[in-house]
Amino acid sequence: MKQITVYTTPDCRQCRLTKTWLTDREIPFETVDLSESPADLAAVRELGYASAPVIVVSTGNPENDLHWYGFHPDFLTRYATTEAAA
Hints:
Blueprint: E1 3-8, H1 13-24, E2 30-33, H2 38-46, E3 54-58, E4 66-69, H3 73-80
Parallel strand pairs: 1-2
Antiparallel strand pairs: 1-3, 3-4
C-alpha cells in the first residue's frame, strides 16, 4: 500500500495547492511541517530539496519511493491516484 507524505512550510502557496488537490480527490496523505521538525527538514535536504512542498510516495521500500517538490498535478495524477506506485 502506498503512503503519501507532503512536507510543508507555513505560508507556502504550493503546499496549500497540493494538500487541497489531494483532499478534493479524497486521497489520504500525511502532512509534516518542516518548520517544526528539524529531523525531517534535514532528511528533505538530504534528498536534495531546498523548496517545499516535497511530496513522497512510499510503497514501503525506500529504494522505490518516488519524490518531487512543488505543486505538480500531473505527478499527483500519475502517482497518487493510480496503483502505479503501489
